[in-house]
Amino acid sequence: MMRYLRWIVLLVAIVLMAYPLGWMIAVSLRTSEGLNLRYYADVWNSGPFDRYFINSLAVAAVVVLGNIVFCTMAGYAFARYRIRGGKLLFFLVLSTIMLPKQVILVPLYIEMQRLGLIDSYWALTLPFLVDPFNIFLIRQYLLGIPTDCEEAARIDGAGELFILFRVVFPMLTPVLAVVAIHTTLTNWNSFLFPFILTNSTSMRTLPVGLALLAQGAYSIDWGHLMAGAVLSALPVVVAFLIFQRRIIGGLTTGMTR
Amino acid sequence: MSRRRRVSPVVWLLLPWALVYGAFFVFPFLFSFVLGFLHYNPLNVANTTFVGAGNVTRLFGDADFHSALRNTLFFVIGTVPVTTTLALALAWLLHAPLPMKDAFKAAMFLPSILSVVVIALLFKLFYAPGGALNETLRALGLQTHGWLTDPATALPAIMAMDIWAAVGYYALVLYAAFTSIPESLYEAATLEGAGHWATFRHVTLPMLKPALGFVLVMTQGGPLGSTNTLVMMLYDTAFRRLDYGYSSVIAYAVFILSGVFSVFALRRMRSQTPVQQRGMPA
Q1: Which chain A residues are Cβ-neighbours of B126 within 8 angstroms?
Q2: What is the model's pTM?
Q3: Mean pLDDT, to the nearest integer, of A199-221?
Q4: Quick one: CATH architecture of A37-252?
């Protein structure tokens, strides 16, 4: 009895939460000729939307790859080596996790401008290649697994590179999945930095393109705007629905070990 | 010999991080500090002047800064308790053998994979004339309202959006903490004759403390960043008014505020449990 009451209360709460989302989808599908995908076609054909899409995809791919390789290296160093001043270095890593990145928005913009990298893929990827949070995750994970395999490989005469990428790397699969998910989501959804660091239409990513759509031609045209919003969210939503158990587990409990 | 072998791999292992961190965090961070002492207009670099602490005194007297600070505080005080309580309630409801549990969890997680832009547009429509909220009110025979245009309701409306975006994720974090409480504790409580409330108060809540601490700490940042009003001001000062020097001082104010908070957060987390979980930054 109690169980059904719980279930009903939860269902009501979730329906309430889903209400704005449902409304958004309804608005994006309801055109003057009934329900169809016209707004979606319009937005997609509005010129650069497919370009935004490709940009977002390419930038996310590079940033995720960079984080997987570079954060594994740093996390491994922090977990397995006694480094002089290592405590201080790791404290630096931790403190960057907690600080709001917006603080460096203006100086980073000036720096990129001086380097001539504004409005390039470099500006969209370079500053985000090593997320300190991922270093932290990988280090914590490594501290929880024994060094036996690495020692055995070392006794067999394996070099450090071999040990890192052939022995340690495969053991990191669970935490690297979390790293990949976290980085993909953060990067795919990031708005402020891509917005500041690019200025031509051809370099915009999806969230920036969407925000521009909302300020430009479609500012009060809800149908087109919502179609754009749904389109930009669709890839992560689909990926989420496929991997939902792993994603929810990874981002809520995955790090308890 | 052995010393060299221990030290040299560390250098190349840390090199990519050190380069990115140095070039795109430490350098701009220090550069910003210097900018704070200057009057610097990018369109008129030749006229850059040294103003000393001028930008700082200006900040303390700036009514815009005061109101941004007030809004930020109001935002945090208004959203954190609501988000935490709602998340706890949802997690408790979910912690039972229920049909369709995975679907519920997916629905609760969904807002946290959406970008700020999508969420902002979604709620702009939600509150708009002819949007979901006003249409529902109209259908119920109630008065409609310009939620975002009326200054009295604009901030609460945005706070509601923030709670909407955050609550599901924190509910799932707390739910994960619920499931890790050993069943034996509940059995012991039942044997002692503890009722529902007593069990919750004396078994569940203490066991949830680390996770609750985490939620309290993280929600203050908000998925959309509770410092939003301050960051908006920073952006406006820099890119609309082209006053880079002053914007750097605002940035440092944001940095100090969140720094004070981080120290508190780190201490709190360390005193209770090793840092375990963290959400996604907005």
Answers
A1: 20, 23
A2: 0.85
A3: 86
A4: Orthogonal Bundle (1.10)
